[in-house]
Design a protein that fits this description.
Blueprint lengths: L1 H21 L23 E7 L3 E21 L5 E6 L6 E2 L4 E5 L2 H29 L5 H26 L2 E3 L4 E3 L9 E2 L6 E16 L11 E6 L2 E10 L9 E8 L11 E18 L4 E3 L2 E8 L2 E12 L3 E6 L6 E3 L12 E7 L5 E3 L2
Parallel strand pairs: 1-19, 2-20
Antiparallel strand pairs: 1-18, 2-9, 2-13, 3-5, 3-8, 4-7, 5-6, 7-9, 9-12, 10-11, 10-13, 11-12, 13-17, 14-15, 15-16, 16-17
């Protein structure tokens, strides 16, 4: 019992001294993240990803959204009024220019035409006899002129009735496809009554807008590409609106696509691309490697195992890349990660190297 008490007392006296000698409480100490990506311990090189500078093609593109527009489109209606007596087309069918689509009652006009034609025949015979008499000086010029005027008046009346009869016929103004009819046989039609829509989609138009600053670069004959449902098509600009939209500061242009198989339908949405220029064999780097400064921009490359700071001058910008016009050369190894930890001449170890550089597309 006495021995146990002595050991307890000695432990209480010696414990603070042992604590001071070890410098900490018992337990696990902090872990140094020397092996973490982009981190380095004392004397360890910084881990970073390299990007081998190689020649690339940089495309200066304009991106826009467009709408597919028919070459021609019209809602057809009669010029005159009357009861519809015939529908001569199938909904959704193809029709030719001049083809009869529908007709309203023209019987009163046909009767009037027959009457006038009979009167004209008599007037022509009278005019023939009067002309012979005039040649023999048997009648006065005034008498002949009266008969001649009567004949001309009848001819004008006949032309007027024939024109009114033609207004009872609804004919296709161009080749195309008719839609769904909006009237039935027996209905009373007026010029305000819509009969059917006619659409011509060969060729097809693509309408899109571009920023006003590019209006001088896009003109008739300029090629564009557009995407619908993941498929890419090529069209050619044929017209550019001469006026800028003051609200959007854009200008509207239209391009033509042959659409020979009518695979595309009017009204659809399209993603439009315009290639303004191509820059061959240039230097383009990922945007995240760029470090902006008050006097310009800089990047870091790795050379002989150490980071080197390089001032650069830039050209075109895209969403993901920047063109470098001065400062970098083909074969340089650019550092594109651990950017915030890079310093001049610190040791660097590449954890990976990106070699293949695809073409770079984007806005100027």
């Amino acid at each position: 019992m006495t021995i146990t008490l002595i050991l307890v007392v000695l432990g209480i006296i010696l414990f603070p001294k042992i604590k001071d000698m070890t410098g900490s409480e018992l337990g696990p100490g902090p872990v140094t993240p020397a092996g973490a990506r982009g981190m380095r311990g004392s004397g360890q090189p910084l881990l970073a990803t390299g990007y081998l500078i190689s020649p690339v093609q940089m495309n200066e593109l304009i991106y826009s959204t467009g709408t597919l527009v028919p070459d021609e489109e019209v809602e057809l209606s009669f010029e005159g009024t009357g009861k519809v007596v015939g529908i001569h087309f199938e909904e959704g069918s193809r029709v030719k220019k001049g083809e009869l689509l529908a007709k309203i009652n023209d019987r009163p006009l046909q009767a009037q035409l027959l009457k006038l034609q009979a009167q004209r025949k008599l007037a022509e015979e009278r005019e023939f006899r009067q002309r012979q008499l005039l040649d023999r000086d048997a009648i006065s010029q005034e008498s002949y002129d009266q008969v001649s005027t009567e004949l001309q008046s009848l001819q004008a009346d006949i032309m007027l009735v024939e024109a009114r009869i033609s207004e009872t016929e609804l004919r296709a103004p161009f080749d195309g496809i008719v839609g769904l009819r909006m009237i039935s046989e027996g209905a009373f039609a007026t010029p305000q009554t819509k009969i059917v829509r006619l659409v011509k989609s060969i060729p097809l138009k693509i309408e899109f807008s571009i920023p006003e600053r590019y209006s001088g670069e896009v003109s008739p004959g300029f090629p564009i590409s557009f995407v619908v449902d993941g498929n890419t098509y090529i069209a050619t600009v044929y017209a550019v609106d001469p006026k800028v939209n003051m609200e959007t500061r854009t200008i509207v242009a239209r391009a033509l696509y042959p659409n020979r198989n009518e695979e595309l339908k009017p009204g659809r949405y399209a993603s439009v691309q315009l290639l303004l220029s191509q820059i061959e064999n240039t230097v383009a780097i990922p945007s995240q490697a760029m470090i902006p400064e008050m006097g310009g921009e800089k990047v870091f490359i790795v050379k002989n195992g150490k980071a080197r700071e390089v001032p650069v001058k830039i050209g075109l910008r895209t969403e993901s890349h920047i063109q470098i016009t001065e400062g970098l050369h083909f074969g340089d190894t650019l550092l594109i990660t651990a950017i915030l930890q890079l310093r001049q001449n610190i040791p660097v170890q590449l954890d990976s190297l990106i070699i293949d550089a695809p073409p770079v597309n984007g806005m100027p």
